[in-house]
Write a structure and sequence with these properties.
about 280 residues; alpha+beta; Helicase, Ruva Protein, domain 3; three-stranded antiparallel sheet; Transl_elong_Ts_CS; Elongation factor Ts; Transl_elong_EFTs/EF1B; protein biosynthesis
Length: about 280
């Protein structure tokens, strides 16, 4: 046990420096014999333990941040997740979300792993900074999703609660201003959650599952076996209409699908890719 006298002022100073709790700061100073740097290291190590202890906890809250390049050809999305809504509103958490996004913009990482390894201005990596804030706040914090998308024209959308974000890649604008139309399509994706841009983008396993479900339902309805394949094909087409972006009914005008809306906006305009992220989904 340390014989060094730890004053309330010392504890408060360390608390101000690290944001850790009063008792945690006092224990760290006692263990470090009053050495502030060593106490900070002890608190950071505690943060690592907290991070490990909470690694299985669900992260359904957080903040989605998006940055689109000035020329509109690249978009980056970072979904920083935590366990509870109050933490998602804490200034330190929001500052961290912005710092991670800024690191992504400055370094152009391709993957979450590359993003986590980036060194920030204070010399710590993104991963180390997240671990430290985990220890300070006492909740699991993770980069739940990261997207780095390039194309002819990127349009973004963030829902008002900050928990959902969309990046859309448009091709074929041919110089037309598609800002408003792009926002409409991004909001369509947010609301309707398509599984792919078009039919050919649907995972074969999903198609097989939809067909098998349709066949099972048709047989339970007592339809003749010779009609099962034909009816199932019709149900699959209905699935494409409901679940693939270009074939979906346009939310703002049900008289046309999204493909037609885009073509009306600029001849040949289409969507080549999109990324939709929703925390807590």
């Amino acid at each position: 046990m340390s014989t060094v006298q730890i004053t309330a002022a010392d504890v408060n100073k360390l608390r101000q420096q690290t944001g850790a709790g009063m008792m945690d700061c006092k224990k760290a100073l006692l263990e470090a014999n009053g050495d502030f740097e060593a106490a900070v290291d002890l608190l950071r190590k505690k943060g690592q333990k907290v991070s490990a202890a909470r690694s299985g906890n669900a992260t359904s809250e957080g903040l989605v941040s998006i940055a689109v390049s000035e020329d509109g050809t690249n978009g980056k999305l970072v979904a920083l997740a935590c366990e509870t809504e109050p933490v998602s509103k804490v200034e330190d958490f929001r500052n961290l979300a912005q710092a991670v996004l800024a690191a992504a913009v400055a370094n152009n990482p391709a993957t979450t792993e590359e993003l986590s390894a980036i060194t920030l201005e204070d010399g710590r990596t993104v991963a180390e900074t997240i671990t430290e804030l985990t220890g300070k706040i006492g909740e699991k914090i993770v980069i739940q999703e990261y997207a780095n998308i390039s194309g002819e024209k990127i349009v973004s959308y963030i829902h008002s609660n900050g928990k959902m974000g969309v990046l859309v890649v448009f091709e074929g604008a041919n110089g037309a201003d598609i800002t408003e139309a792009g926002k409409d399509v991004a909001m369509q994706i947010a609301a309707m959650n398509p599984v792919a841009v078009d039919k050919d983008g649907v995972d074969p396993a999903t198609i097989e599952r939809e067909i098998e479900i349709a066949k099972d339902v048709i047989r339970q309805e007592g339809k003749p076996e010779e009609m099962v394949e034909k009816i199932a094909a019709g149900k699959l087409n209905k699935f494409y209409k409901d679940s693939t972006l270009l074939n979906q009914e346009f939310v703002k005008d049900s008289s046309m699908d999204v493909r037609k809306f885009l073509d009306n906006t600029a001849k040949g305009l289409t969507v080549s890719a999109f990324k939709r992220v929703q925390l807590g989904a």
